[in-house]
Design a protein that fits this description.
Helix content is about 40%, strand content about 20%. Strands 11-12-10-9-8-7-6-3-15 form a nine-stranded mixed beta sheet, with helices on both faces. Helix 4 runs parallel beside helix 5, helix 4 crosses helix 12 and helix 9 runs parallel beside helix 10. It is α/β, with parallel strands linked by helices. The chain is built from 19 helices and 21 strands. The protein starts with a helix and ends in a 10-residue tail after the last helix.
Length: about 475
């Protein structure tokens, strides 16, 4: 068994200041490869239609069976702004604005059904945002009814929704369970009152604890909590308290993200006092602390930003080498075609990536013309497909099996990636990677910097070195 699998049961490795300084660079999170910044505006509705037609004609088939289908629905509305947020959102207290949006979503669903046919099997559905719970229960139920009439939701699938604890109570949780949602994700970020005030998201621990208890009573199969380290006013001491509070509630999964301070790109972040942000060494200390803390309280370290209780399906998939990664992060589901619905939503169909219009006006205009609101995307090349397989193996399994890549893509791995293997040598010397006769393996220390390892295989990134477009990897 590899060190990366055993990491959850061992103390975190010591990270030197030299390695931290050298590897604290900007880089992608690799929820896809190529990354979304590589999408081009030359890709539009016509190319997306081609992707859907290829799926219908069998282009997305494996062994005669259609590629599994997932659906992501983006609900952009929030009542108030969180200063750290980099999501596509619309801040408003006017709930009546949701009516026009829901009508547009129904049109987009109709257009999709026209191409794919009614009754496509769906095993994964995720409502994100924004705040999906901005919608009323009746609105959510109506949208689900539309989706259920268009697609066939298979028993035992994962049907999840992101929850803003400030917008929900036990009664609403009961209603969500009755609708068929079986997984929840609570946006927590931090429990420290000073940190919450600094990012304009105040939600007491007691409020979340009550919701967790109510969700357990309703029988939700899995509950996730989102945390962020590197927020203003955070310290090692305050973050340790938050970790203890989170583990006392025993969420099934924890997603721990590094805050990326990019005020030039995300206007709300300009309200954050940069001088109040923790130093880089404190950020890595928080990450190390989190890995040790959750490892000692029953969680497995899944990789980069995810933890899961040992019995959770994500942890089981990690141990069995069945982990995958998509636009929502780590997943137990195999590579799936993803239908993205809603403003700014990203989809993947076969070898195509696509993204919807990022503004409501543009999104509405396209759908009034009964045209898919695709404004950019990418058709993957053969090289993209090879590199995607390698990068996802690094990110998910912590190991690249050379023979598997060679058989799948008919290449000589050592020749194809000769430059990359040479570029890995400094990472080998630093103890982050081991080059073996049959593959490339990420070490326990390397798992902290898995994005830096994946970046070596990113042809687009290596070609122009314009890494300032991304967040820091620490």
């Amino acid at each position: 068994m590899s060190e990366s699998v055993l990491l959850s049961n061992h103390a975190a490795p010591v990270i030197s200041g030299e390695i931290l300084t050298r590897l604290d660079v900007a880089g992608p999170r690799y929820t896809s490869y190529p990354t979304a910044d590589r999408f081009v505006e030359a890709y539009g509705p016509a190319q997306y239609l081609q992707a859907l037609q290829q799926r219908v004609e069998g282009g997305g088939a494996v062994g005669g069976a259609a590629t599994p289908l997932s659906i992501y629905v983006h609900i952009p509305f929030c009542e108030s702004v969180c200063y750290y947020c980099a999501c596509n959102k619309v801040i408003t207290k006017h709930h009546e604005r949701s009516a026009e949006y829901l009508e547009a979503l129904r049109t987009e669903i109709d257009l999709t059904v026209e191409q794919l046919g009614r009754g496509q099997a769906v095993s994964q559905l995720h409502f994100g945002g924004g705040s999906p719970t901005f919608l009323t229960d009746d609105e959510l139920e109506g949208l689900l009814t539309t989706l259920q009439s268009a697609f066939r939701f298979v028993p035992g699938g994962e049907y999840s929704i992101e929850i803003d604890p400030r917008t929900i109570d036990a009664g609403r949780l009961k209603r969500l369970a009755a609708m068929g949602f079986n997984r929840l994700s609570f946006g927590v970020q931090d429990f420290d009152p000073h940190v919450q005030q600094a990012v304009h998201r105040v939600q007491p621990f007691e409020q979340v604890a009550e919701l967790m208890q109510a969700a357990r009573a309703e029988g939700f199969e899995s509950i996730n909590m989102d945390l962020i380290y590197g927020l203003p006013k955070q310290s090692l001491e305050s973050f340790q308290r938050t970790l203890s509070q989170v583990s006392s509630l025993k969420p099934d999964r924890v997603a721990l993200y590094a805050y990326a301070h990019l005020p030039q790109r995300f206007k709300p972040q300009r309200r954050i006092d940069a001088s109040a942000l923790p130093k880089a060494e404190d950020k890595i200390g928080m990450l190390s602390m989190a890995i040790n803390h959750f490892g000692a309280t029953g969680y497995d370290y899944i990789g980069m930003d995810h933890f899961a209780l040992h019995h959770d399906s994500l942890a089981v998939a990690r141990r069995q080498g069945r982990l995958h990664r998509n636009f929502q992060g780590y997943s137990t589901h195999p590579d799936s075609d993803l239908i993205g619905l809603g403003v700014s939503a990203i989809g993947r169909v076969g070898a195509h990536y696509s993204q919807n219009a990022k503004t409501l006006d543009d999104y509405y205009d396209s759908l009034r013309r009964r045209e898919f609101p695709i404004v950019r995307g990418l058709m993957l090349s053969r090289d993209d497909l090879v590199r995607r397989a390698v990068i996802m193996a690094v990110m998910c399994q912590g190991r690249v099996d050379i023979e598997s890549i060679e058989l799948a893509y008919l290449i000589d791995f050592r020749q194809y990636f000769a430059t990359e293997l040479r570029q890995l040598e400094p990472l080998v010397e630093s103890g982050l990677v081991q080059l073996e006769s049959d593959g490339v393996r990420v070490t326990a220390l390397g798992w902290y910097f898995v994005r830096a390892i994946a970046m070596v295989f990113d042809r687009h990134l290596q070609a122009d070195k314009k890494v300032e477009r991304f967040s820091r990897i620490i």
